[in-house]
Recover the amino acids of this structure.
């Protein structure tokens, strides 16, 4: 829950190659105060069956920038192994072209930022959701 002095962040991931939420993707959250400051990792989470991270760490007061890092390589490696076990058609050559997706964005105190990731093995898109 955000207050007037902090921002809050949420995210979810949709795997557009299968048209479903991306489950069990590790997400790391880092923050910094000021454009010249170093990012400090606050912690992380993993997406649930609905592709959502419901327990990302709270942002400290004074946060001006946030970085989310999604471990896409582990997700696609696990998907590839599951497909091989099911004799499913091969839709991926080698896991993920992007082994991770790092999204950095500016925040304003008191605002909530929902940042969905639309993901496939060879590309991604993000936007500020609601």
């Amino acid at each position: 829950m955000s207050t007037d002095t902090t921002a809050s962040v949420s995210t979810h991931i949709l795997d557009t190659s299968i048209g479903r939420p991306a489950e069990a993707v590790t997400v790391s959250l880092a923050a910094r105060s000021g454009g010249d400051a170093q990012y400090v990792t606050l912690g992380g989470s993993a997406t649930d069956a609905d592709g959502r991270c419901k327990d990302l760490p709270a942002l400290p007061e004074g946060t001006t920038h946030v970085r989310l890092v999604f471990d896409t390589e582990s997700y696609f490696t696990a998907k590839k192994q599951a497909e091989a076990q099911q004799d499913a058609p091969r839709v991926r050559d080698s896991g993920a072209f992007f082994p991770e997706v790092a999204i950095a964005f500016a925040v304003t105190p008191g605002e909530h930022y929902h940042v969905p990731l639309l993901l496939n093995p060879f590309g991604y898109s993000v936007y500020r959701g609601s």
